[in-house]
Automatic annotation (TrEMBL):
A Pfam family per the record: Inositol_P
GO molecular function: inositol monophosphate 1-phosphatase activity; metal ion binding
Swiss-Prot/TrEMBL cofactor(s): Mg(2+)
Binding site for Mg(2+): 67, 85, 87-88, 207
Top-rank taxon: Bacteria
InterPro entries: Inositol_monophosphatase-like (IPR000760), Inositol_monophosphatase_CS (IPR020550)
Official protein name in the record: Myo-inositol-1(Or 4)-monophosphatase
Gene3D superfamilies in UniProt: 3.40.190.80, Fructose-1,6-Bisphosphatase, subunit A, domain 1 (3.30.540.10)
Species: Ruegeria marina
Listed CDD domains: CysQ
GO biological process terms held by the UniProt record: inositol metabolic process; phosphatidylinositol phosphate biosynthetic process; signal transduction
Family note: Belongs to the inositol monophosphatase superfamily.
Protein keywords: Magnesium, Metal-binding
Amino acid sequence: MPETDLELLIRAARAAGAIATRYSGREAQRWDKPDGAGPVTEADLAVNALLEQMLPAARPGYGWLSEETEDNPDRLDRDRVFIVDPIDGTRSFAEGSLTWAHSLAVAERGVVTAAVIYLPMRDFLFSAATGTGAFLNDTPIRVSEPQTLADAHILAARPNLLPDHWIGRAAPVFQREYRPSLAYRMALVAQGRFDGMLTLRPSWEWDIAAGDLLLREAGGLCTDRFGTALRFNNNLPRLAGVIAGGTMVHESLSAALDPESTGFPAL
């Protein structure tokens, strides 16, 4: 039988891990991107080169969107597109952490249909395809459903709790924790290890595309900060943040956010 998109992404993610783990994070060459766009290492570029060769060769009709490739508007004319972050959590990689990830997705007409988030240093492979559920190393995963928001453990960077974001100028009460890779945060919520996550900053599609499908297939809700379903392969591949979790967590966080907040730069 022909290889499915998910099988292709899994094979590519493991190949990416084999490349990336040849580099020592602290010793890998590192550069800062222009305009404060963050760091990039030689490992990011090596993984990107592998994936850009491997994935389009297997699916020549698909478009390509990657953090480490200059954007080509031709992708906008394709029904299906690969959306790739070669290493999500580059700062963590450069610091020698274990929590960076490869994030790979296929979107069809704006909706993600196959997704993989792979942490090679921990051999955690999260995967999902439309209608088949979400998995961690072949074991089904499901979002958690705490009784109240106050009981919930939410992954969020500290600036998301600034009062300007919230109705009544106060964030709701919950247990805040943090992990540096946005893709890994979304996977952890899909797994049920944490009850929800939010980022209110504008977010690049390659950081969140794979996590969006994982969360939905794990029974969760995943939207932008305004409660709108995420759509991918946009002209500007950036979305208005992410709120994700089980039904109660998602609805509680959404209801508490001030829709008029301008605490972070507009898209």
